[in-house]
Amino acid sequence: MDYKAIAQQTAQEVLGYSQDTSGWKVVKISVTVSTKTSRKFQGNLYRVEGIIPEPTAKLSDFLHHPGNRISWDKSLKVHNMIHRIDSDTFLCHTITQSFAMGSISPRDFVDLVNIKHYEGNICIISAQSVDFPGYPPSSNYIRGYNHPCGFVCSPLSENPEYSKLVTFVQTEMRGKLSQTIIEKTMPSNLVSFILNAKDGIKAQKTSRRGFHPNTLSSFQKKK
After folding, report:
1. Of 123, 128, 191, 210, which has the maximum CB count within 10 A?
2. Which residues face 80 on adjacent strands?
3. Mean pLDDT, residues 3-17
4. CA–CA separation, 217 vs 59, rounded Å?
């Protein structure tokens, strides 16, 4: 399997999604979530937009770092790099938490991830599910499939210390799931992802400054 060719094609598809302004229907407003019919499977392509208080370069590093992801992304219980192809392309194995109050059981995915930089300090982290002999489907989890998806990070024009994050998701959950259940739960889960990312960045900044919330209370008790 030519993973590099697939990665390049996926990056172009995600770039195309970011440039396509037609046909989107807004389904959530607190963080903007829009949807349109996917051309890849009998489901939806979701577009999620949020403003993140972090420069684009730092935001893209934060999002694609496999070892860091489960510390802030509450939708995942496993997110590991399992094979590196080159400095910008690698395979990840992911296991999700159950959601929709347990009505949707955990899924696992093997995704080809690629990081690509464009003019204007734009970074696209694209992903697509692939087969990988080292991680065949397991009887423990239903193997889901991510059609071309990813993150588009770009500087906020009025303040380059902030970034606009646009996320595209078109996940085929597989198994015996009603599409209606997926459509009802997906927008809220996508909003939670943006909120979790903001919380994770805030916690990371606090950690870099060496400040811990209990420090002040401990000092006060000593006094």
Report:
1. 128
2. 93
3. 92
4. 31
Say which range, 170-174, 194-198, 216-220, has the weakest mean pLDDT.
Answer: 216-220
Q: Of all helices (H) and strands (E), which one includes residue 122?
A: strand 122-129
Alpha-helical segments (H) within 20-169: 56-64, 66-69
Specify burial of residue 33 (Cβ count, 10 A radius: 0-12, 13-18, 19+): buried
Q: Does residue 56 sit in helix, strand or coil?
A: helix
pTM of the model: 0.84
Q: Is 49 exposed, middle or buried (0-12, 13-18, 19+ CB in 10 A)?
A: middle
Q: Which class for 50: exposed (0-12), middle (13-18), buried (19 or more C-beta within 10 A)? A: buried
Q: What is the rounded distance in angstroms from the CA atom of residue 131 to the CA atom of residue 6? A: 12
Other Cβ atoms within 10 Å of 59 Cβ, number: 24
Q: What is the largest CA-CA distance in the chain?
A: 65
Q: Quick one: tokens of 9?
A: 């094609």
User: Strands 44-52 and 32-37: what pairing?
Assistant: antiparallel
Give the confidence band of 29 by pLDDT, cuts at 50, 70, 90.
low
Question: What are the tens digits of pLDDT across the range 49-102?
Answer: 999 999 999 999 999 886 788 999 999 999 999 999 999 999 999 999 988 777
Q: Which secondary-structure segment (H or E) carries 35?
A: strand 32-37
Q: What's the CA angle centered on 192, arms 189 and 193, to 5 degrees?
A: 90
Q: What is the length of the chain?
A: 223
HSE-CB at 180 with a 13 A cutoff on CA atoms is 0
